[in-house]
Amino acid sequence: MTFETVYADAPAPDGPALFPTMSTMRAMRRLKPDPVPDETIDQLVQAAVWGPSGGNMQCYEYVVVTDRAMMAELAPLWKRCVDAYLATTGKHAPKGMDGAAYGRMVAAIEHQRDHFADTPALIIPCYKFPEPQFDEEGLGVYAESLGPAGLEHMAGTQTRFQALAEGSCVYPGVQNILLAARALGLAANLTIWHLMLEQEWKKALGIPSDTHTFAAIPVGWPQGNFGPVRRRPVADVIHRDRW
């Protein structure tokens, strides 16, 4: 079995609508230049807002770009990020993925790169994590609960913990954007390449320096057709009760 294994157990047409939506929600990078109505983009962001947020803090913001001049300004930044990715991490197919299939994916990435200025809409989820509030009593319980080994571990993993805490507040909403786009017949794909030049992206878009960005999601009407996703079988990835 490889990444090219087609989702074989598709739900019956009369089953829950969400499951056929998820099983055909491929990354769609070839977009028509036709505009997406503002009210449709608002539906996508509404779906994001409905997503669960870690701690229910809901400190997310969404930058939505549809202006042609702004998209043209962002296009060179997108190209630099994609070129950097394709020259390094993206130079070789992931283990288990057929080379021809990976070649098709790279071709789609290059097409999106070369036509980025024509992207109808770009959604950038942002988050500024609130300053934590601690008191002496709470810190005492924290130390007692974790113990010396736990405290030492947290001291070395605080950056990762913070990133995951923010991500838990943002990515459920991002997934809702992708699901809503698929349900509305829109093409979309999740990328984080912009993080390689995040400061330049934030400057171009006027995003505050203390606010983090978590994705750049191109959205538009698809040139191709939706189809079944190709993923590893569930039996290959599940560990019951323990690893």
Give a structural overview.
The chain is an alpha+beta fold and 243 residues long. It has helices at 18-23, 38-50, 68-86, 99-114, 136-183, 198-205, 234-237; strands spanning 60-65, 121-127, 187-188, 212-213, 217-220. Strands 1, 2, 3, 4 and 5 form a five-stranded antiparallel beta sheet that branches. The protein is globular and about 60 Å long. Residues 1-13 have low confidence and may be disordered.
Strand content: 5-15%
Distance between the termini: 20 Å
Give the SSE string: HHEHHEHEHEEH
| Tally of alpha and pi helices | 7
Helix- and strand-based class? alpha+beta
Low-confidence stretches: 1-13
Lay out the secondary structure.
Blueprint lengths: L17 H6 L14 H13 L9 E6 L2 H19 L12 H16 L6 E7 L8 H48 L3 E2 L9 H8 L6 E2 L3 E4 L13 H4 L6
Antiparallel strand pairs: 1-2, 2-4, 2-5, 3-5
Characteristic terms for this protein:
globular; 7 helices; 243 residues; disordered N terminus; alpha+beta
